[in-house]
Amino acid sequence: SGPRPVAMLASGRGAGRASSMDRPGLATALDRLYAPDDALGRAWRTGRAARAELMAGLNGADAGADREAEDTARGWSGDAIRLARLMRNEPKLRVAALTLGGWDTHISQGSAEGQLARRLGPLADGLAAFAQALGPLLAETLVVVVSEFGRTVRENGNSGTDHGHGGVLWLLGARVHGGRMHGDWPGLGEAARWQGRDLAVSTDFRTVLWRALGAHFALDDAALARVLPGFKFPAGALDGLTG
Fold first, then answer.
1. Can you name the residues that pair with 150 across neighbouring β-strands?
2. Pairwise CA distance, residues 8 & 54, whole Å
3. What SS3 string covers the chain?
4. How many Å apart are CA 123 and CA 111, to the nearest integer?
């Protein structure tokens, strides 16, 4: 939401390939269709320009080593390498998001082996590949890993866990004061759990984003209130998270 252009790329190795939208004949026809200077016309022109910039960034001249790494990477790691390449080649890109699914571990979740481990492994590999592909730009980058919901502490009857209440956010970057947990830890004892089954929420996820965005982009409270409307940041929360 807002005036900044947003573009989406397909996942997988086809992300940098031309699509039907890039065919000159079709693009020219759509240019004529959306020629009027109305909301649809402006959205088309903005979207087309943003896509052209992203495609140029993905296929930049310095992409050779990245493509070799991408060829050996599997799945999400390849997407992470492509994003790192794009960030290096396209300085206008300020915020990007990647999605990794498959966390609905209702059955046979496992621990060191099993469904959960088979998702955590690719996540870790992708984050490592992203950091390596960023190179020196990593010092200027903040990575936030967040899930839309947690999992229950209590195991269900199918050796899995169900949708839960509390969760965890990871922050990675040169300015993050890492190697420790920030915020309050309620514990996993049954008495400390929410409704006896979930990790209790001690920190609103917007508190973490407020602190991280404020430090990384040098945004004041007024600007952050536009990014996270309706949220009142608790004064002094998560002091020392970033430097």
1. 164
2. 9
3. CCCCCCCCCCCCHHHHCCCHHHCHHHHHHHHHHCCCCCHHHHHHHHHHHHHHHHHHHHCCCCCHHHHHHHHHCCCHHHHHHHHHHHHHHCCCCCCCCCCCCCCCCCCCCCCCCCHHHHHHHHHHHHHHHHHHHHHHHHHHCEEEECCCCEECCCCCCCCCCCEECCCCCEEEECCECCCCCCCCCCCCCHHHCECCCECCCCCCHHHHHHHHHHHHHCCCHHHHHHHCCCCCCCCCCCCCCEC
4. 16
Burial of 129 (0-12, 13-18, 19+ CB in 10 A): buried
Total residue count of the chain as it appears in this document:
243
Rounded to whole angstroms, how far apart are CA atoms 1 and 59? 28
Neighbour count for residue 227 (Cβ, 10 Å): 15
Q: Which amino acid is at 111?
A: S
Among candidate residues 88, 199, 93, 99, the one with its CA nearest the CA of residue 146 = 99
Give whole-number Cα distances, 39 to 26, 42, 43, in Å: 20, 5, 6
Residues of the chain with pLDDT below 50 are: none
Whole-number CA gyration radius for the chain = 21
